[in-house]
Structures are given as structure tokens and as C-alpha cells.
Amino acid sequence: MADDGFFQRAYDIVRQVPEGRVTTYGQVARMMGEPRKARYVGFAMHSSPGMKGGVPCHRVIFADGSLAPGFAFGGPEEQRRMLEAEGVGFLPSGKVDMSRFSWEA
């Protein structure tokens, strides 16, 4: 996919996700006006500059609360560690408690 600014638009939205909250790939895509491009949001997060670039991509997860198995900055264990450090809670299933920690602008 040629980046026509899509990645930057995704980063701009993800930068708004507050500490201690999560959003989903689909939510980001919908906020961008691209509701069918959740997978492309995933590509953007995988390519992001991460926290050094001000993009808290660890706060973007799957709609069911699952973490990304290919988390670009150390795997799902590191993603979970980062989220827990921000106060995000997990269910016994290992998924984020979306009813308490989901963010939508």
C-alpha cells in the first residue's frame, strides 16, 4: 500500500489515546473515515516510530481485547507490560477489560 498520508493520519489519532486507555484498529479506522481499513491501521502501527515518535501504538489492540501477536516493539508480553504500567487492567482470559479501559474520541 502506498502511503498517501494514511499512516500519518492514523498516528495523529493514536497520539490522542490517553494513558491508561486503549483503542482498537477498527476504531482508529472509523475515526479516520476509513471503516474498512482496520488492517491498514495495523500496518501503520507496525511501522510507527513508537513512543520515540510520540505514537503510543501499544494502546491499539484487537476489538475483543486481545493484544497484537506481532507487536513491533517486543511482542505481546512487552505490550502487556507497557499497558499494565499505565494502569490498564486485564481479564483472567489475558484480554484487556474493554468495558473499563476502551477509549473513543
TrEMBL record:
<dbReference type="GO" id="GO:0003908">
    <property type="term" value="F:methylated-DNA-[protein]-cysteine S-methyltransferase activity"/>
</dbReference>
<keyword id="KW-0808">Transferase</keyword>
<feature type="domain" description="Methylated-DNA-[protein]-cysteine S-methyltransferase DNA binding">
    <location>
        <begin position="6"/>
        <end position="88"/>
    </location>
</feature>
<dbReference type="InterPro" id="IPR014048">
    <property type="entry name" value="MethylDNA_cys_MeTrfase_DNA-bd"/>
</dbReference>
<dbReference type="GO" id="GO:0006281">
    <property type="term" value="P:DNA repair"/>
</dbReference>
<keyword id="KW-0227">DNA damage</keyword>
<dbReference type="Pfam" id="PF01035">
    <property type="entry name" value="DNA_binding_1"/>
</dbReference>
<keyword id="KW-0489">Methyltransferase</keyword>
<keyword id="KW-0234">DNA repair</keyword>
<protein>
    <submittedName>
        <fullName>MGMT family protein</fullName>
    </submittedName>
</protein>
<dbReference type="InterPro" id="IPR036388">
    <property type="entry name" value="WH-like_DNA-bd_sf"/>
</dbReference>
<dbReference type="GO" id="GO:0032259">
    <property type="term" value="P:methylation"/>
</dbReference>
<dbReference type="InterPro" id="IPR052520">
    <property type="entry name" value="ATL_DNA_repair"/>
</dbReference>
<dbReference type="InterPro" id="IPR001497">
    <property type="entry name" value="MethylDNA_cys_MeTrfase_AS"/>
</dbReference>
<dbReference type="InterPro" id="IPR036217">
    <property type="entry name" value="MethylDNA_cys_MeTrfase_DNAb"/>
</dbReference>
